[in-house]
Amino acid sequence: MTTNHKNQGSFVLKGIAASPGIAISKVFLLRGEAVKIDTTQVESSELEAEVQKFNNAIQKAKNELRALQNRVAQRIGQESAKIFDVHQLLLEDSIIIEETLDAIKKENKSAGHAFYDTMQKYQNTLDESSVEYFQGRISDLKDVKRRVIRHIQGDRTDYLSKLEGSAVIVARDLTPSDTVMLDKRKVLGFATDLGGRFSHVAIMARSMEVPAVAGLRRLSSLVQEGDRLIIDGNAGKVIIHPDEKTLTQYRRLQEKYYEVEQRLSIIRDLPCITLDGKEIELSANLEFSDEVESAKSHGANGIGLYRSDYIYLAKKDLPTEEEQFEEYSKIVKEFPNDPVIIRTMDLGGDKHPQSILIPPEENPFLGWRAVRISLEREDIFNVQLRAILRASVFGNVKILIPMISSLQEILECKTALEKAKSELREEDIPFNPDIDVGVMIEVPSAALLADKIAREVDFLSIGTNDLVQYLLAVDRGNERIAYLYKHLHPAVLRMIKDIIIAGHQQGVWVGMCGEMASDPLATLILVGLDLDEFSVSPFYLPEIKKIIRSVDHSEAERIAERVLEFETACEVEKFMTRIMRKNFKDLII
Ligand code: PEP
Ligand code: MG
What we know:
The protein is α/β, with parallel strands linked by helices. The protein has three domains: 11-32 and 163-260, Glucose Oxidase, domain 1, CATH 3.50.30.10; 44-153, PtsI, HPr-binding domain (Enzyme I, Chain A, domain 2), CATH 1.10.274.10; 277-583, TIM Barrel (Alpha-Beta Barrel). 48% of the residues lie in helices and 15% in strands. It has 24 helices and 17 strands. Strands 1-2-9-8-4-5-6-7-3 form a nine-stranded mixed sheet. An eight-stranded parallel β-barrel has the order 10-11-12-13-14-15-16-17, surrounded by six helices. β10, α11 and β11 (303-307) form a beta-alpha-beta unit. α15 crosses α16 (407-426), α18 packs parallel to α20 (490-505) and α21 crosses α23 (553-563). Bound molecules: phosphoenolpyruvate and magnesium ion (MG). Residues 305, 307, 346, 442, 463-466, 513-514 line the site of phosphoenolpyruvate. The site of phosphoenolpyruvate (PEP) has 10 residues, from β11 and α19.
């Protein structure tokens, strides 16, 4: 977290972008409910009553959770309701129950005191873990602890019902039950000191489609109830006491967002087709399977990139074949008639799972990454390929291999795939034997060899996020040189054009799943260059579709030709901004 700017009480805190969108409102401050525990020793004659109190509280908590779970399932969906499964399991955990009962009977502790100490012990163990996933589980423990103690003490105050008008919720942390107790219509966004993209508040915010920023560390101690706050869930920052200029700027941005949302209902079910009838595939990028709903509601025709990396990052152990099969199947079943492109793990770089030891490297983004790990750790790759193959029976699954830099790697991947297929065949496990295999073109060597690579695969998907960083030698995460990171750089455009031509000459389709596909300034150029598929962040789907539906393919070709004559990214940007302002006044650019 950094404090970027201080101006007449207005300041900015940077955290982790947990859910997109913009909210401007007053703060509703959820102070951590301090649990008051009576630590006085209980008379032996009263111990049985304490045991009874504890058992009753557990039962009430279970009933309450079940009701809550049903409510969430109805309001938000089955997927989100599963969050409470962990809580039910904790309430049934025999070790927790036994330890608490022992502490009552043998140490003369009150029911509340005994349960608090037991839960605190497990919480401390998780507190010591630096793994984001475990940090996320702490809120499960706290939630259960608070719920049971509330029932032991007979305290049913629902502090969240204090929320009267609309507000943004600021809290140190938010448990899932906190989140769902809130009236969705009144909650405009979340900002929390703790948590990250794996925490419940992030997952819930995304499915509630409200912006959220997590990991703000000190926010809850810096704001007061009723303070004005802007949550920028796209940039992962909050602005406290914004000045008039900032407010005006964000209100404008927010209005644009609302307009896009409104157009959504009109454009969502329309085909993605140019004015003169050229059909273009428009699919969504996914990182978590729980984002499937958002992709569907924004009108995605399938998934163009499912980043399976998070399955590995979310767990201490390697995800099993069964776990992966379930996760992939869940997505495929949501899109039974559309392509679902599952990218094999792209670990390394800045993605370090606990289960695979990736030693520190001088240049991790040029190091042991993605397919390089898959090909060395055949065992792990085999499990993933088997799981993807098994999920392929439910729809139109395609496999996408990241970070390919040579032909040899593709051939080795294909050998690994054949091995997984023959194993499944021998085990009589069904799969689609003709599953399509594609590669990401995100390394310049692969781009230059695109014609040869295309002969070996069924499709190419251009990963501009990495391609731009490797082609322009600009670290994609380095703020200091961010001004050099430009996907409208003439060298990038020329390379994209050549990749598409090479793919088409070999008879394969070419898509793009890098962020450039979500940039409205680039859409007409990419249509003109004959890109077959755009895979974009769900929020941008309607906007990109709107642009595609408003142009003749031949006109887009003329624009692309003109743009390729420019010498600098700045010229391209200016030219495209002019075109977009003239023709798409109503879109965010
Ligand atoms: C890319 O590099 O463009 C891409 C889509 O992959 P990632 O952002 O996951 O590296
Ligand atoms: Mg990449």
